[in-house]
Every structure is written in C-alpha cells, then in structure tokens.
Request: fold
Amino acid sequence: MNLDELNSEIVVCVRCPRLVEWRERVAREKRAAFSDQEYWGRPVPGFGDPYARILIVGLAPAAHGGNRTGRIFTGDRSGDFLFQALHRCGLSNQATSVSRDDGLRLQGVYVGAVNRCCPPGNRPTPRERDNCLPYLAREISLLRRLRVIVTLGAFAWDGVLLALASHGHPTPRPKPAFGHAAELTVGPYRLLGSFHPSQQNTFTGKLTEKMLEQVFRRASTLAGSGGLPSNSRRAATWR
Reply:
C-alpha cells in the first residue's frame, strides 16, 4: 500500500456514525459566508511530501475548513497561521492554503490528524479517536523517511503516542506530559509538542508566530531537512 491508496480508503470511511452525521449536516447547512460553495463533507486525508522527514499531526479537520475544502488545515484561521510559519521556515512554497488546487507544495513535510472527520465541538470521543488511529499508524509506516513528528496540542500528542505503541514503540513511563516545545524520543522518532494554532491560542498570545516557527526550525534541524529548494519536485497531494 502507498499513501494514495491509504487516502482513498480514508475518504470513504463510515466507522463513526456520530461523525458521519455531523460532517454531512455541516456540509448541507453550510456557513453563510460559504453558502455558494460545495462542501467536501467526507473524511479528510493527509497531504504533503511522500518523502517527508517531518509529520505534523493535528486534532481533526475544522467543520468549515478541512470539512469544506477537503484538505486538512485549509480554509480556516488555524491553517493560515500554520502555513505562514511553514513558509517562513522554507518548508512550503507559499504562505496560504485556501483550496485543494491552490498550488501549495510542501517540502520534507506531511500533514495529518488523529481524527479525519470534524467532530462536534472539536471533541472526538475516545472510541472515535481509536476508530481513526489505525489510519495515522499506517500513515507513519508509509512515510519511510520520517524522523520527527510535531504534535499540535495535547490530543495529538496522546494520539501519536498510541499510534506509535501500536508499532511496538511503547510510551516511556511515567508518561511524558505534553507541553509547548516538549521533546521525546519514542522508537526511531523524535516527538515535538506545540500548542495548537487555534484562534483561542493565537488571539490570546498563548501561541505566537515566533513560538511556532521555533518548533518547526527545531524539527528541521532534528530531521536534517534543508527547506524548499528552488527546483524542488512536486509533492504528492491526494485529490
């Protein structure tokens, strides 16, 4: 199996009835600002460079972001903050992510999430998390050059630890607590924690541009990533 095959499986998933009902209801009812747009309304796959050394993991697609556009962290304020930081670090060719066909390319980076459907209140249940975790675990195994995993928020930190445990890389005991700029080695991977780029964090100053940029520069150093060269190949993006 390759990443495209995995993503084709992800987008037709119906394992969680509550999330299926919610994502489809949001896609039907829409937000007024996007009333003229067709929503994706399905599980959202990962995207980026298939040769990535860095994996960025979020919580889940936003109801009117990824659930609308079909690409994780695309079309919402969190994504704006995230991709601006990646661009400043030379890990993307542009600072914006507005649609699946906007020309965005990532170099050395792949972006995914613990849950692939938008949950009500941004809160998946433990069972919904566990239903979706095998996708993240398989994503990790298919990113064969992966060295560093950046987790955006405590939910992603815990989800990644569970996914790695399923690969035979148990969580150290006592369990390391999540924190911004926290670092942890699990098996062959280095985990970095970052506060999630939600408006709740960015508008209050809990997460600043400099703080997120420092995490990505640290990830690049650990992964041996050299940024985006001018003649970089086109990164694979599932459509």
Notes: The helical segments are 3-10, 17-29, 66-69, 77-88, 126-142, 154-165, 199-202, 209-223. The chain has a mean pLDDT of 93.
